[in-house]
Specification:
The chain folds into two domains: 412 residues, 3-Layer(aba) Sandwich (Alkaline Phosphatase, subunit A), CATH 3.40.720; 50 residues, no CATH class. 26% of the residues lie in helices and 16% in strands. The protein is built from 14 helices and 20 strands.
Length: 510
């Protein structure tokens, strides 16, 4: 009798928890730097009303940084709560699941605690093999239709249809380093853009009754290249009003060789863009892509506000890294400067913090994993590199000693606290910037004796342990239809698990 009573009590408690447990809406955007209204990184006028409205509702972290300045390692860090130095995922040519088959990702942990995990769009790096289905209950896969002529690799894009290269491609009029690097408008309704369809899936989910609490991840691809948008978003940024970044001609003179190599890795593309008078046009299209992403996020937030889950859903918005548009002579990501590492991060959590508060403490996106566990009342997880941001949600001025750590392949690392950025490259060379006096990072003060103490204090945070690089994709045979990897050397089979995939995968002719 007593045992039956205890079982019944436990079931009642579990039911009550599931009804009261907060939901999570986990919203990602891609390649979005600080050119948004609430961060004011662009020297002109940004049009991001929906992101700004979310920031006014929640807590805007104005000094938030990624764990790595490129897609795959950054997203792997966010979803695992671990730095690349812990996982060995340093670049885009590495797969997570076959390297760390027992890793509990964020959606997996939520599933283990009674949540349903639903995903759509780009949450992990967008090429096949990065997003193991077994993490999710349902996933709406990103199938590229906006630029399917750029997605012809059977290994990377097996699920996307192939279309012939348009006669007027590239639309921007310049041939750059890949077919993905382009900008222009597309002659199709906005609702047919890939990001719009991703958001439509999430909106449909929010419109239905859910029996369990949910972790809903929705990832937009914009403003990642190509910068294809409906014309109305370009109209927000008249070409004659575009302001270009300031780029001193001597900006690289005080930067060590490894930093110059990172900066100059895509400098030929920037030179082409400048020489052909397309710089303002490119900036215009990047801004328009940000506004397009903002509009899609706005539709999603409006659907949440109209749903039954509005008062019990934590909203998180983040970008995987930033983007250089000419600063330091660079036209890409993968640097350790502010343009590549500082990103929008907003958390709107019911009953946690005052609406519209801003936090300038340095934080990392690896902090999201422990933060969400704490906000949802789930037990803390061992082995995470991040720290919960809940104390900063309660008090944005709360002390925080730990800086943000950013890692790039080659044993390059940046350490960012509230005032300074310290960079140490794999060869030991250094940079140091004082953001109070030099917000553009134009003057490297690493050799300034007055700042030796500051530099040494920041250097203490450089990781001492660097995990070996994960094997590259060439180490495996990948079956995208069964989501299985075979280790070439041993024949070991590693399964990515399964979930309900939307749309149902169909083999396409390439």
């Amino acid at each position: 009798m007593k045992r039956g009573y205890l079982v019944a009590a436990a079931l009642i408690a579990l039911t009550n928890w599931s009804m009261a447990a907060p939901n999570v809406l986990f919203v990602a955007v891609d390649d979005m730097n600080d050119w948004v209204g609430f961060l004011d990184g662009y020297p002109g006028k940004e049009h991001t009303p929906n992101l700004d409205q979310l920031a006014a509702k929640g807590t805007a972290f104005t000094n938030a940084h990624v764990a790595a300045p490129v897609c795959c390692p950054s997203r792997a860090a966010i979803m695992s709560g671990r730095l690349p130095t812990s996982t060995g995922i340093y670049g885009n040519q590495q797969w997570i699941k076959p390297h760390l088959p027992n890793l509990d990702t964020l959606p997996q942990t939520f599933r283990k605690h009674g949540y349903q995990a639903i995903g759509a769009g780009k949450i992990y790096h967008h090429t096949a093999g990065n997003n193991a289905p077994g993490q999710w209950d349902v996933y709406r896969r990103l199938v590229f239709t906006d630029d399917s002529w750029a997605r012809t690799s059977e290994l990377l894009y097996p699920y996307s249809p192939h279309k012939a290269l348009p006669k007027n491609f590239p639309f921007c009029g310049i041939t750059l380093y890949s077919r993905e690097v382009d900008w222009g408008t597309l002659a199709k309704p906005e609702r047919e853009f890939d990001d719009a369809q991703t958001v439509d899936f999430a909106i449909d989910f929010l419109s239905k009754k859910q029996e369990k609490p949910f972790f809903l991840a929705c990832g937009a691809f914009h403003p990642h290249l190509p910068w294809y948008v409906p014309q109305k978003y370009l109209d927000l940024y008249p070409l004659d009003k575009i302001k270009l970044p300031e780029t001193p001609s001597n900006d690289l003179e005080d930067i060590p060789k490894p930093g110059r190599q990172l900066a100059l890795s895509k400098s030929d593309n920037l030179k082409k863009i400048r020489d052909q008078g397309k710089w303002k046009e490119a900036v215009q299209h990047y801004l328009a892509s940000i506004s397009f992403a903002d509009a899609q996020v706005g539709r999603l937030l409006e659907a949440l506000n109209k749903s039954a889950y509005a008062k019990n859903t934590i909203v998180v918005l983040w970008s995987d890294h930033g983007w250089h548009l000419g600063e330091k002579g660079h036209w890409h990501k993968r640097t350790l400067w502010e343009e590549a590492t500082r990103v929008p991060l907003v958390i709107a959590a019911p009953s946690h913090g005052k609406p519209g508060q801003r936090c300038s403490r340095p934080v990392s996106l690896i902090d999201l994993y422990p933060t969400l566990l704490e906000l949802c009342g789930l037990p803390p997880k061992k082995g995470l590199d991040g720290d919960s941001l809940v104390p900063l949600l309660k008090n944005p001025q709360a002390p925080r000693r730990k800086p943000a750590i950013i890692v790039e392949a080659g044993r390059h690392v940046a350490v960012r606290n509230e005032r300074f950025r310290y960079i140490r490259y794999g060869d030991g060379s250094e940079e140091l910037y004082d953001h109070q006096k030099d917000p553009n990072e134009w003057t490297n003060r690493a050799k300034d004796p007055e700042l030796n103490e500051v530099k040494n204090r920041l250097a203490e945070w450089i990781p001492r342990h660097w995990a070996n690089q994960a094997p590259t994709k060439n180490a495996y045979r990948f079956d995208p239809w069964n989501y299985e990897w075979t280790v070439k050397k041993t024949g070991e089979l590693i399964s990515g698990g399964s979930c309900k995939i939307i749309p149902t995968p169909k083999k396409t002719k390439k």
